Amino acid sequence: MTTMKKTFLLLSAAVVLAVVSPIAFGADNWTPGIEYRAGDTALYNDTLYVCLQYHTAQAAWTPEITAALWNAVPVEADASGIYYWIPRAGYAAGDLADYEGGIYHALVPHASLPGWEPPAVPALWQYLYQADEGTVPTIHSPLAGERFVAGEPVVLTVNTGDSFPQPVWHSSLNGQLGTGNNLAIDWLSTGTHLITVTAGDVQAVVTVRVYPDLWKLYQAEPSPAEIARIESDFTLVWVDSTALNESWSDYENDGFDQTSTAPTKFAAYAKLDALRHQRFSRPLPMAEGRDAYIYLKHVVHTLYLTLEGGYNYGGGSTITLTRGFSVWDLRSSADPTVPFPDFVLAFYHSPLYLLFHEGRHSEPGDPGHLYIDGQQFDPYLENGSGHAWAALYLMWVYKYGLSDPAVIKQDARVIATSLLTSRFPRPVTHSDPEIQAIIDELLAP
Ligand SMILES: [Zn+2]
To answer: I need a labelling partner for 390 at 20 to 30 A (CA). Which of 72, 200, 248, 347 fits?
Structure first.
C-alpha cells in the first residue's frame, strides 16, 4: 500500500530528529556565571536539567536545589522517537511529542511549562496528527460531524507536511470542491457529506452535515467536536439547584432527546451553536461588525448554567442562565414539577435574545435599566441597555436573518414588537432610518 511508504518515511525522519536532539545528548556542564534562558539545558552530576527562567547561574544555586530555575529532564522517547509532552521539560526544535494522543512538532527549543500544553501554544508546537491516525494529513476544519446551514461558508483546512503535494478536496455529494491547504466554499448542498482531502497518495476524511435552515440544524445532535469547541470558547459552569434539590449529575447519562422535558447540557450547547451559525445580511448594530457568536465571546467569558428557575442576569463578563436555557421546551422552566401534556420544541431565538440582553450588562457603555412605577424600562433603544440589545437582535432575525426560516422570523417579529411596546418609553426612535423604519413597522397600530 502506498500509504505505508509515507508513514515509514515520516517516522524515520522523527527517529533521526530525536537521536540528534541536542537537548538529549549535547548539553554542556552547568557552570556558575553563565546566563541561562528558559529552555537552555545543562548537565549537572550526570543529570540533564532544563532552565525554567532566565537567570545568571551562581555557585550556591545548583540545579538540584533550585526547582524554580531548573528541572531534571526526562528524555524518554518511544520506539518511533516520539517523546511524551510533560511540563518542565526541555524540547529541541524538531522534537516530536505526544500530548493526549496528538502528535506535535516542536517549532523552537523551549522549556515546557504548565499552561503551555501544545494545543495552547501554536507558536511553540505545530499539531501534526493523532497518534492512532498514523501520518494521514489532519483536517482542522471542518470539525468531525460539524453542522452547517446551506449557504454558510465552510472553511476547509488541512495540515500536511511540506513533502505532500497540493491537497485536493472532494465531497461525496458535490464532487470536487477545490485545492489547497485552506479554502472556503459556500455552496455545499444539503445532506451528509463525506469530505475527502487527498495529498499525493494519502487521504483524510471528515463527515459534515448541511441543513436547509438553522431550525433544522438546531434539531440535529451536535457532534462531540462541536461540543468541545463550545467548551473551549466559553467557561461553562454547571450549577446544581439547591431549591429544587437537583444536580447536573442526575442528568449526565441522558442522551440527545429533544422530546424530553428534563434539563440537558445538549440544549445549552445547541443554543450556543445555533448562534454560531446564525447569519445576517446586515451586520448586527451592537456587535461592531462581529458575528453574533463572536460578539458574545467578546463580551462574555463565563456562562453559569443553573438548574434553578428565577431570573437570568449578566455583568462582569459573566451570564447566569436559568433552567430554561438548558431545556428543550421553555415551559418546563416555570415549574419543573408540573408535567405538561403537549411537548413543543421551543425556538432558539428566544433564549438567544437573553444572551444579548445579559451580555449588554458586561459592556462599558451599558446605561442600565430605568424603573418607572415599578416597571423596568430601557431609557432608549439606540445605545440602550439589555432590552435594547434584545430588541435589536430580534429585529435583525426578523428583517435580516439569512439562516432563519420564515416561522422563526415571524416569531422574532412578534417578540421584538412586544419588547418595543413594553420596555421603552414612547416614542421609540433611532437615528438610522432603516432601523427607524423597522420600529415604525412593528409599532404601527
Ligand atoms: Zn437587564
So the answer is: 248
